Amino acid sequence: MQLYIGNQNYSTWSLRAWLLFEQFGLEVDIIKLKLFTADFYTTLRDVAQSEKVPTLVDDGLAVWDSLAILEYVNETYLHGKAWPEDAKERAVARAISAEMHSGFGSLRSEMPMNCRAKRKVALSEGALKDIARIDAIWSQQVEQHPEGWLFGAWSIADAMYAPVALRFETYGIELSEQAKRYQQKQLNSPAMQKWLAEASLETDIVEEDEAGVPD
């Protein structure tokens, strides 16, 4: 398998797909491309029509979109282990993952992921509403699963919310006690620490993701 990703400092969707392989120790060749460069589009044009990252190639099959990749790898190689065992919890995990996948537009646009930076931004009412909703999701799940991950064992839901933990760290977002505990669980995990270490070695600047001012 080959997983095409973008700059680790900025690419939230790449992180989500990458985490699944790292958490479960699955072998995959990582091909990192610099975002918004000619080589980025030229390379992906021969891989998938979407010309976006992440894209997974497995035995001639191209799968794009983070959630589709997570589902494919879970079904094909993990026998369902990346979702909760309990059917009701699995339904909730899928619901909040889909909510992350399609929602929180204000947060996404106003707080781009920027692992290396500490920034200050003036947030809109919509972004503050997004933050409050995510805080509520995290707090509710931590109350039910005090060990830290959203559904006890690490799951696709945790992959979907991992970039948000980094965004909150970059922009100094204040969280409730339980949500903060979950954020720290994410940030301190070995997989996330590996991603951050690799992101710190990058020197490319994507101006459109340098939101706000230095803190």
From TrEMBL:
<dbReference type="GO" id="GO:0004364">
    <property type="term" value="F:glutathione transferase activity"/>
</dbReference>
<dbReference type="Pfam" id="PF13409">
    <property type="entry name" value="GST_N_2"/>
</dbReference>
<protein>
    <submittedName>
        <fullName>Glutathione S-transferase</fullName>
    </submittedName>
</protein>
<dbReference type="GO" id="GO:0016034">
    <property type="term" value="F:maleylacetoacetate isomerase activity"/>
</dbReference>
<dbReference type="InterPro" id="IPR036249">
    <property type="entry name" value="Thioredoxin-like_sf"/>
</dbReference>
<dbReference type="GO" id="GO:0006749">
    <property type="term" value="P:glutathione metabolic process"/>
</dbReference>
<dbReference type="GO" id="GO:0006559">
    <property type="term" value="P:L-phenylalanine catabolic process"/>
</dbReference>
<dbReference type="InterPro" id="IPR004045">
    <property type="entry name" value="Glutathione_S-Trfase_N"/>
</dbReference>
<keyword id="KW-0808">Transferase</keyword>
<feature type="domain" description="GST N-terminal">
    <location>
        <begin position="1"/>
        <end position="81"/>
    </location>
</feature>
<dbReference type="InterPro" id="IPR036282">
    <property type="entry name" value="Glutathione-S-Trfase_C_sf"/>
</dbReference>
